[in-house]
Design brief:
The structure holds two protein chains of two kinds. Chain A contains nine helices and no strands. By secondary structure, chain A is mainly α. In chain A, helix 1 packs across helix 8, helix 3 packs across helix 6 and helix 6 packs across helix 8. Chain A starts with 5 loop residues before the first helix and ends with a helix. In chain B, the strands form two sheets. Chain B has a six-stranded mixed β-sheet, with helices on both faces. In chain B, strands 2-1-4-5 form a four-stranded antiparallel β-sheet, covered by helices on one side. Chain B is built from nine helices and ten strands. Chain B is globular, with a radius of gyration of 18 Å. The relative contact order of chain B is 0.18. Chain B is 35% helix and 25% strand. The chains are: A mainly alpha, B alpha/beta. Chains A and B meet through helix 5 of A and helix 2, strand 6 and helix 4 of B.
């Protein structure tokens, strides 16, 4: 007789096994960041690739989200005569939530997929094996620089996203909603607290780690040629997004409590 | 004399299939051993177990008499310095230039300065007859034969004690394959290292081997001097070198 719970149990065990494997991989990746040898050239290259070259996508996302947020808050606020709260809620929403989460999601697509595809291709073409035979630990040469670069550059990107997002709201508020520019900016700065920014930056650092570690994990364990690399890339994006959203809630709840 | 490399009763199961079922092999210093066998018989797995890229389920790998199978990762890295490996597909790093590929170990593991590393890479390129004008191009711009030469240069640049060759002539035309075989013989003699090659190309095996071992069903079924391969007295070896479909080995199609 077929046990109807067996497939559910198998799926749960599979998920737990995957979580365990990823945790061990992430732990080894983090440890590799702190133990020599350090490949600073690789770190600089990855910082440029992950951080600098992500600026356009982050900037565009932030400006449109800030603008849309201002419009929505204006419409919602008008229902109980609270239109003047637009700058306050825009800056709060951008710095605490939308800045880090949207930057994380955009980079999950751009960076996690890229890392998984690159390392996955290296795996299936034996380049990672070759690196081992050349007395170079792939965790230190390939993974640690990517993880460190993503963890350090995502907070910087979020800082930029915060500023651009607020400016997106400012542009809409001043040009379409008849707000006074100086008053808008003063309200924004008066309302903003350092802990709002810090919360966003902490989230960004954690998301950066997740994005790079997930991409590296999926790529490092890919097998089966082009199909395997494609699967690793998809899994890296999906895994990063799910993990970012889950961890975002946990960090927010921790800070709120 | 202590064997340079010794595999003792190596067993490995992959996806429920017993790929290696007690492989015993040893290579003396300066000796060139070629392992032949059909596709899927475990040649690559044997090589990966010897190199430490794969952990055997049972058995031991000894390098200069020291057991290395269960060494911690950090110490194992030092043993890797004794190895050089030419991969079947070259396994050159796409993101680096040819000379950076060749000098990879010098730059990143031995911390040799880039200028000296480049000079040594160029000298090694000349040894494997790869023109220096290809030093600054990416591996993708090289032909298959040139990629093998670059891979060979990368394997020998640090003068390893043991060189491994995984199907060194696969995918090459007969003339280029013969040139690669000549280079392997020349380089192994020049460095004075031990060499372990896996191949199913008998022309290559005859040319580069001092001894040939045949792997079948997860075990070494015959081993002897390369010159005696035609008189092995082993039906499986006879079938393999004659390339016949009928015989004790069942073709997998």
């Amino acid at each position: 007789m077929i046990n109807p719970f067996a497939p559910v149990g198998r799926a749960v065990l599979g998920i737990l096994r995957e979580i365990g494997r990823f945790s061990l991989f992430a732990g080894r990746s983090a440890a590799s960041v702190f133990s020599p040898p350090f490949f600073m050239g690789q770190f600089a290259r990855q910082s440029l690739q992950i951080g600098y070259f992500s600026l356009p996508v982050i900037g565009l996302t932030a400006v449109f989200i800030g603008a849309a947020l201002a419009l929505n808050i204006y419409v919602g606020g008008a229902r109980f005569n609270a239109e003047s709260f637009v700058p306050n809620i825009v800056v709060l929403g951008i710095t605490r939530e939308l800045g880090p989460v949207l930057a994380g999601l955009m980079l999950a697509g751009r960076v996690s997929a890229g890392v998984a595809a690159e390392i996955g291709t290296m795996r299936v073409t034996e380049q990672i094996d070759a690196m081992n035979t050349l007395s170079t630990d792939p965790f230190k040469f390939l993974i640690a620089p990517r993880v460190l670069a993503a963890t350090l550059t995502l907070p910087l990107l979020v800082l930029v996203a915060d500023i651009i997002g607020v400016m997106g709201g400012y542009l809409v508020a001043v040009n379409s909603l008849d707000f006074n520019g100086a008053t808008y900016l003063r309200n924004t700065l008066d309302f903003l607290e350092s802990q709002d920014v810090i919360l966003g930056l902490v989230k960004a650092a954690v998301f950066g780690f997740i994005i790079a570690a997930m991409g590296a994990y999926q790529g490092y364990n890919s097998q089966g040629g082009a199909l395997g690399v494609g699967r690793a890339t998809t899994n890296a994006v999906v895994g990063s997004i799910v993990l970012i959203l889950a961890v975002n809630y946990l960090i927010t709840a921790f800070f709120v409590e | 004399m202590t064997a340079k490399l010794q595999l003792v009763d190596i067993k490995k199961k992959l996806r429920g299939r017993q790929v290696l079922d007690g492989v015993d092999l040893d290579v003396a210093p300066g000796q060139s051993l070629v392992v032949i066998g059909g596709s899927g018989q475990g040649k690559s797995v044997t090589l990966k177990c010897a190199l430490g890229l794969m952990k055997p389920d049972a058995g031991q790998v000894l390098v200069d008499g020291a057991e290395v199978t269960r060494m911690p990762r950090e110490i194992r890295g030092r043993v890797m310095k004794k190895f050089g490996m030419l991969f079947q597909g070259g396994a050159l790093f796409d993101s680096l230039t040819v000379w950076e590929n060749i000098a990879f170990r010098l730059i990143y593991a031995d911390k040799v300065g880039r200028k000296e590393a480049r000079d040594r890479a160029l000298a090694t390129m000349r040894k494997v007859r790869l023109a220096p004008e290809f030093a600054d191009v990416r591996p993708i711009e090289l032909s298959g034969g040139m990629q093998k030469r670059a891979g060979l240069a990368r394997a020998i640049i640090a003068k390893p004690d043991i060189l491994f060759f995984d199907e060194p002539t696969t995918g090459l035309d007969p003339i280029t394959a013969d040139a690669i075989n000549d280079l392997i013989v020349e380089m192994v003699k020049e460095i004075g290292c031990a060499a372990v090659s896996i191949t199913h190309d008998m022309a290559s095996a005859r040319k580069i081997a001092d001894e040939i071992a045949m792997l079948h069903g997860g075990k070494i079924v015959w081993r002897g001097p390369a010159a005696q391969i035609d008189n092995s007295g082993n039906a499986m070896v006879d079938q393999f070198i004659a390339g016949r479909a009928d015989g004790p080995i069942q073709a997998v199609v």
